[in-house]
Amino acid sequence: MADPSSYRPKPGQIPDSPGVYKFRDERRRVIYVGKAKNLRQRLANYFQDLAALHPRTRTMVTTAASVEWTVVSTEVEALQLEYSWIKEFDPRFNVKYRDDKSYPYLAVTLDEEFPRVQVMRGAKKKGVRYFGPYGHAWAIRETVDLMLRVFPVRTCSAGVFRNAARTGRPCLLGYIGKCSAPCVGRVTPEEHRELADDFCDFMAGRTGTYIRRLEKDMMAAAEEMEYERAARLRDDVEALKRAMEKSAVVLADATDADLIAVAEDELEAAVQIFHVRGGRVRGQRGWVTDKVENVDTSGLVEHALQQLYGEEAGDAVPKEVLVPALPEDPDAVSQWLAGRRGSQVSLRIPQRGDKKDLMATVQRNAQQALGLHKTKRASDLTTRSRALEEVAEALGLDTAPLRIECFDISHLQGDDVVASMVVFEDGLARKSEYRRFQIKGFEGQDDVRSMHEVIGRRFKRYLQDKERTGEWEEAPAPTGPAPDTTSDPDTAPDPDAEPREDDGRPKRFAYPPQLVVVDGGQPQVAAAKRALDELGIDDIAVCGLAKRLEEVWLPDDDDPVVLPRSSEGLYLLQRVRDEAHRFAITYQRAKRAKRIRSSPLDAVVGLGETRKQALIKHFGSVKKLKQATIDEICEVPGIGSRTAESVAVALASAAPATPAVNTATGEIIEEDDGGSTT
């Protein structure tokens, strides 16, 4: 580990102009490349107190042994040079998107005498028109098969083409009308190129004019009683429409744009790109990367733009690029994109309308891609075993924690304080044993007291069940899967409910974990440990995961345990913590929404949601229902006299409504005449 002060250049040596800098290790290998508008200011940020640096930045500067820089004239030149050096040196501390596959394109080789339509992967070539990328090669082949009956362009390889020309016999596609057979001279090179141009125009989105022309020719053929030709044209139109349906219209103004969305956590990020041409989604691609440097969403977007357009042909850069966050220097990036395209490029964040809605779809795809990536990683048995072993080693446990319980507190500015407990067994979520809590011991916001209360209540029930059923060794856990108490984990039972006797035996509150994880740092860990000590439990390990720097805190330790960023153990603890947070905030939001939607009719015993809606529909509002007589209420189907009396009493005794306030925004939530809130 090098001391950054040993190679820190003097401030006067560093120019204050735009440029690109490289950090090298002791073996002169480039480990990080960055750019800056002002090199002096940027490099000064790396040579401050190590404790103030982000852990990833701290690791980089202590690994480096020297720094050097190159001055350029503009920010655009800095962007170009940074990308070139990242491609050349492949620095270990730079974000690098690893594409999970080679995406296929629909390509038309316009540089050949007889252009060919085919599937292409890899680097793009000059003189070739590309469409896509597509998710699967079979999707391209289906589209091409539909369009060949209208645009019978050559699809065969050079060898097949030469062989057909030598023998004077076309291939099968030539016999069935899906190739114009230029190999045997059925069409001239000019006629075949015109077919290829029409094919490209249609794929580029200019579809309406061509289909209308075919329909006009079809009607004319029918009027002239050329029914076979009319039928063939009809089939051509249907084939083109089916090809168009494979890429639905998403933007009505025939926009050419790329939409980029980012989903990220502390360690990884997923990028999804939708390619929209002519208002239609022509292709989709995605990448996943480790966040090896301290980078925010703006930085991830800039890296994605470099990856996407750094080596693309100019026509691959659209007129409009929509992103979730603008890069640090949007003007320089826009100029760079314009240089790649050869004309102006709009780089912006969609604010409203169809483009914002489509961006939300791309964002959901990015979230799903990141979740799928994590699921694949978590489902591997070897990886899970290594993660549990790393956790045990880092925390000093005697055995791997096969059962982990994680607790999280959630509230909205001190209101609706709730907690969650999630369970992971053998590194996998066991949703049937999730539990949720309402904080009952006090009111207001105090995460430490809340954590103490929740841990105490959970393990008090554990001790009660242990006393009732005997020692745990005498009542081992079931070997099969636990019964799923609910299809939706967000409706899991409250642990404070009385145990049921459905099968003649009390339902025990799960089983003791080997490790308790709390979302938080030293205060939350100390509160959890204190709750266990008060109950006399000393055989369950406790730790906390602080979100800011992903540090693992142990009871009575002044310094955290810092697991390596690439550690599978850290990844497991993170996943457990994030799941507890998701479960807690889902319950908190549902609880708050239920409180806001409360109605005076809720106090009527035995009045279900269906009959409530029937009453509101009949009278139009709770206000009008309150003015109705018992006989008028009885006129509603399903409402008897006793229920009508209960409704009248409940409405008469209901206190006047006070306006609810959205604690997040301070806005008053007004109640409408229907008894619901808006």
From TrEMBL:
Residues of the signal peptide: none
Stretches the record annotates as Disordered: 466-508
Domain GIY-YIG: 16-95
Keywords: Cytoplasm, DNA damage, DNA excision, DNA repair, Excision nuclease, SOS response
Alphabetical list of InterPro entries matching this protein: GIY-YIG_endonuc, GIY-YIG_endonuc_sf, GIY-YIG_UvrC_Cho, RuvA_2-like, UVR_dom, UVR_dom_sf, UvrABC_protein_C, UvrC
Domain UVR: 208-243
One GO location term (cellular component): excinuclease repair complex
Domain UvrC family homology region profile: 259-532
Single GO BP term: nucleotide-excision repair
GO MF term list: DNA binding; excinuclease ABC activity
Subcellular location: Cytoplasm
Compositional bias (Acidic residues): 491-501
Family: Belongs to the UvrC family.
Purpose of the protein: The UvrABC repair system catalyzes the recognition and processing of DNA lesions. UvrC both incises the 5' and 3' sides of the lesion. The N-terminal half is responsible for the 3' incision and the C-terminal half is responsible for the 5' incision.
Cross-referenced HAMAP family: UvrC
Subunit structure: Interacts with UvrB in an incision complex.
Protein's name in the database: UvrABC system protein C
Organism encoding this protein: Streptomyces atratus
Gene name linked to the record: uvrC
